[in-house]
Amino acid sequence: MLPEPAQNRDYPELARQIKAWARDLGFSGATIGRAELPVEVGQRLLDWLAAGHHGEMDYMVRHGLLRARPAELVPGALSVVSVRLPYRDPAARDMHAVLADGDKAAIARYALGRDYHKTVRNRLQKLADRLHAAAGPLGYRVFSDSAPLMEVALAAQSGLGWRGKHTLLIHRDEGSFFFLGELLTDLPLPADAPVDAHCGRCTRCLDVCPTQAIVAPYQVDARRCISYLTIELAGAIPEPLRPLIGNRVYGCDDCQLVCPWNRFAVPTAEADFAVRHGLDDASLVSLFAWEADEFAQRMAGSPIYRIGHERWLRNLAVGLGNAPSSQAVTAALLARREHPSALVREHVAWALARHGVL
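Given the sequence above, the corresponding structure tokens read:
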């Protein structure tokens, strides 16, 4: 099929085809919005940064309002195709059970399989290829948590879901256990309307947060967020927050686990997101025993790989400090007491003191 000349393009029909192609490629939903956000969205971002809620994520300050201006990221962009891709592996051990077992390592469900960035972007590229074949030459770029872009705001603007009080996107038929991706294009596609929010008076996500990082509806202070503390923070985890982290060693799902809409969460059909290396039910002690080469080998292709072995041990030391006292826990910590990293040694010393070993 030859592409239509620009002046003959039926953009409503092209938009319908894009959504059908997205479904064919495994995305659970796709919507189309304008490649711009309201001024007040950018102002909220500036206010959040001014309050210091970004912590040490200095790149957010550097990018500033670029996040709210997609057309500056992709010059000439007029439309944004936003997509959802579910990631919850139905075979994974129930997260509530893992959190309740202090000897286990609780890892955010999105990180149990392979890194999602390439998976989502590869599928979006296939979507772009189909669009190019049908519409002819076009300007475009695909993203998945890979550029300064306010993904949730763009997705909410086009009705892919609504922004929950925990700041994640929620869909009434799928919950929130999904990745987002975007295809920015210079095609003037018709925009979809936003959907009504359905959080109502519910505050379960605010109430359950172990560190009270959701400081108000739709506002997260990253400096208290367990995902930030275990992933983004490069240095020592503040001592007052360590006991509150419990056995969460990479990310945190608590605000999603209590969300009523996640009773409708859709299981993934993507093999890349299947649990690897038993990470859904691994013990803190066993993971803490991994040396750097074993960490690199096992975590290759995982989102966990990017934090590196040193931060991995830091996080696990906190988990072990919060674990029930046992000979196995104490022995594991003592084995790392003289670790070459001062960061690891500090957290190990803290953990040993929690078990009465000075």
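The chain has a mean pLDDT of 96. Try to locate this feature in the token string yourself.
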